[in-house]
Specification:
By secondary structure, the chain is of the alpha+beta class. The chain has a domain at 48-129. The chain is 52% helix and 12% strand. The protein has helices at 2-30, 33-40, 42-45, 56-66, 133-143, 154-176, 196-210, 212-226, 228-239, 250-255, 265-278, 338-344, 346-351, 356-406, and strands spanning 70-76, 85-91, 107-110, 117-121, 148-149, 152-153, 285-291, 296-301, 317-321, 327-331. It has an 8-stranded antiparallel β-sheet. Strands 5-6 form a two-stranded antiparallel ribbon. A hairpin with an 8-residue loop joins strand 1 and strand 2 (85-91). Helix 2 (33-40) packs antiparallel against helix 5 (133-143). The protein is elongated. The chain starts with a helix and ends with a helix. Keywords: Membrane, Transmembrane, Transmembrane helix. InterPro entries: PepSY-ass_TM (IPR005625). It comes from Caballeronia telluris.
């Protein structure tokens, strides 16, 4: 049985090593994406004008009036002092052609005091330019920048499958790391004095043993992040009921009327403030998101600069039908069934933000460790493969010499 586990671990490791190496290194970096992005691109993050900020709704109106080709889809409702207002946009439909206007950006940095656009970029573009670098790395982490094929997000699915293989391979690796009860201490040891192959082997085996629980968690959450709707939510729903998300809410599908003029941002925000107060949400409205494809609004509640959620299970969100303005769903951290709370925990666990700054530090360290384990695993496989080939050549040479002597 052990020999089968060895073969399975070998081939699963070889199949996933390159993907995990890239995901580990990029994950270590994007744990600090906001800070690194701001350091690289201060003009995109810091406002030129030092003055009182206009309201976010007014800024969105000015941006859309200045460029009628675009529509603001994600609008932060508060701004950190001295920072730009960063909003996401999408092209509107050109009535002359029936096609979307061609624009080469989807994110704007706006001076909150004047409404002037300080910067534009295509978030997630395949580009190593300084303005694009951090979004490029972030998207590389979960899609590898692979294209959609026939409506299928190939990169997201591929890395989700890699996560599944990684999850099961983690269990196999733990079994193989403890060949005997008497020698269990060796599975935690590092032979630094030996160096060479011995240290490479220990870094791979013992390194994986020391952080095995974290590796298993990262594997599981990577599957949950990439394949939540097609795989993870159906499995979780077998054990615990799940509240619908904005992506699969039947209330939205039942009452959506894409032909109708959507409720204004002002009207939805006013309702969200009232609904948030009724639900005892302490944080102010932090962002307003309009999903035109779903004909829905979502309003998040958080302080300026805390859009990712810094500690705990993230931020509360309320979901609204854009046709009727009706509240049709919500995601409130810590509320709902056990399954709902499990799903809420996936991004905070994967990003480390569930534990704040210490959690992000730990996730960066684990990302580097994943890259190291992938590299050392490949090194071990290459060495053993070379040894097996050399042994086969020696055996063949001996057989030839034996046949020559006998003849």
């Amino acid at each position: 049985m052990r020999s089968w586990f060895v073969r399975l671990h070998r081939w699963l490791g070889v199949a996933t090593a390159l993907f995990l190496f890239v995901s580990g290194l990029t994950g270590a970096i994007i744990a600090w994406d906001h800070e690194l992005d701001a350091a690289l691109n201060p003009l995109f993050f810091y406002a030129r004008t030092d003055g009182p900020a206009l309201s976010s709704l007014e800024l969105a109106r000015r941006v859309e009036a200045a460029d009628p080709r675009i529509e603001v889809t994600y609008l932060p409702l508060g701004v950190e002092p001295g920072h730009t207002q960063q909003m996401m946009v999408l092209p509107r439909t050109d009535p002359a052609t029936g096609q979307a206007y061609k624009v080469d950006f989807n994110q704007l940095a706006v001076d909150p005091a004047t409404g002037d656009v300080q910067g534009r970029r295509e978030w997630g573009a395949v580009s190593l330019a300084r303005i694009d670098l951090l979004p490029f790395i972030y998207k590389l982490h979960y899609t590898l920048h692979l294209p959609f094929v026939g409506g299928l997000d190939v990169g997201t699915w591929l890395l989700g499958i890699v996560g599944i293989l990684w999850f099961f391979d983690s269990g196999i690796a733990l079994i193989l790391s403890f060949p005997s009860v008497k020698a269990w201490r060796k599975s935690f040891a590092f032979r630094f004095g030996r160096g060479g192959y011995a240290l490479t082997f220990d870094l791979h085996r013992s390194g994986g043993v020391w952080i095995w629980g974290l590796l298993l968690m990262m594997a599981l959450t990577s599957v949950s992040m990439n394949l939540a709707d097609p795989i993870v939510r159906p499995i979780v729903s077998v054990f615990s009921p799940l509240a619908p998300t904005i992506l699969n809410n039947p209330e939205l599908a039942r009452h959506a009327n894409p032909a109708a003029t959507p409720f204004t941002r002002e009207a939805v925000l006013a309702r969200a403030i009232e609904d948030g107060r009724e639900r005892g949400l302490a944080a102010p409205p932090g962002a307003l998101y309009y999903a035109s494809a779903l004909h829905a609004y979502a309003v998040g509640f958080f302080a300026p600069g805390h859009d990712h959620g810094d500690v705990g299970l993230g931020n509360p969100w309320l979901h609204y039908n854009a046709s009727t303005g009706k509240l049709v769903g919500s995601s409130i951290p810590g509320e709902g069934s056990a399954g709902d709370i499990f799903m809420q925990a996936q991004f905070p666990l994967h990003s480390g933000r569930i534990a704040g700054i210490p959690g992000r530090i730990l996730v960066s360290a684990v990302g580097i460790a994943v890259a190291m384990l992938s590299a050392t695993g490949l090194m071990i496989w290459i060495r053993k493969r070379s040894a097996r080939r050399q042994s086969a050549v020696v055996k063949q040479a001996r057989a030839v010499r034996g046949n020559s002597v006998s003849s």
